[in-house]
Amino acid sequence: GQSLEQPSEVTAVEGAIVQINCTYQTSGFYGLSWYQQHDGGAPTFLSYNALDGLEETGRFSSFLSRSDSYGYLLLQELQMKDSASYFCAGYTDKLIFGTGTRLQVFP
Amino acid sequence: DAGITQSPRHKVTETGTPVTLRCHQTENHRYMYWYRQDPGHGLRLIHYSYGVKDTDKGEVSDGYSVSRSKTEDFLLTLESATSSQTSVYFCAIREGLMNTEAFFGQGTRLTVV
């Protein structure tokens, strides 16, 4: 089967940098994407990696290593509004989500 | 915002009754997905569609069926609802195979009593 594992929870303070890891146990994904979900809301797209390496989108960066079946989302200059759940997702014709990481940002 | 609407937004139903959730899009996207979200389980794929009348199973398809008779509508049916199907259901759309961004509806909170 296809599975993507993430840490269940991460905490950090405002202004800090945090990394959310995603390890997956399948081949065949065209790439890895990342979504943010605030409590009570719907997931929204953040970034993706179709190729190995680092992609930067403002305060958010995402990394993919296919050889290691591993990716991460890097959030810089954390703000209180970044407190949310974050999901990696592997995509083919399906879109399979990871277990999710709850990020809590403290003042 | 992508044009994707789920209905109903909330529903309470009794065990053993049939339930149909509707996802409607105005974007003409090829792919449509149904997920359920439960605490501790993230988003789990139930079924998806890659075109009109083209559907396939996801990770947790038992007890669910789907239909897509038009590009814009993707229906999820619980033939005989059980308490274990109490969940928040999300529909998502995606333009094409190599389009990485999916857009989600606002979710349907279903309670089976």
Q: What secondary-structure arrangement, pairings included, does this model have?
A:
The complex is a heterodimer of chains A (107) and B (113).
Chain A: E1 4-5, E2 9-13, E3 18-24, E4 31-37, E5 44-49, E6 53-57, E7 60-65, E8 70-75, E9 84-91, E10 95-97, E11 101-106
Parallel strand pairs in A: 2-11
Antiparallel strand pairs in A: 1-3, 3-8, 4-5, 4-9, 6-7, 7-8, 9-10, 9-11
Chain B: E1 4-7, E2 10-13, E3 19-25, E4 31-38, E5 42-51, E6 54-57, E7 64-70, E8 73-78, E9 87-94, E10 102-104, E11 108-112
Please tell me about this protein's structure.
The complex is a heterodimer of chains A (107) and B (113). With 107 residues, chain A is mostly beta strands. Helix content of chain A is 0%, strand content 57%. In chain A, strands 2, 4, 5, 9, 10 and 11 form a six-stranded mixed β-sheet that branches. Chain A has a five-stranded antiparallel β-sheet with strand order 1-3-8-7-6, with no helix packed on it. In chain A, strand 6 (53-57) and strand 7 (60-65) form a beta hairpin. Chain A is globular, with a radius of gyration of 13 Å. The mean pLDDT of chain A is 94. Chain B is an all-beta fold and 113 residues long. In chain B, 0% of the residues lie in helices and 58% in strands. In chain B, strands 2, 4, 5, 6, 9, 10 and 11 form a seven-stranded mixed β-sheet that branches. In chain B, strands 1-3-8-7 form a four-stranded antiparallel β-sheet, with no helix packed on it. The interface between A and B is medium-sized, with 25 and 26 residues.
Q: What percentage of the residues of chain A does DSSP assign to strands (E)?
A: over 45%
Oligomer: heterodimer
- Pick out the low-confidence regions of chain B: none
First-last Cα distance of chain B: 34 Å
Order of helices and strands of chain B: EEEEEEEEEEE
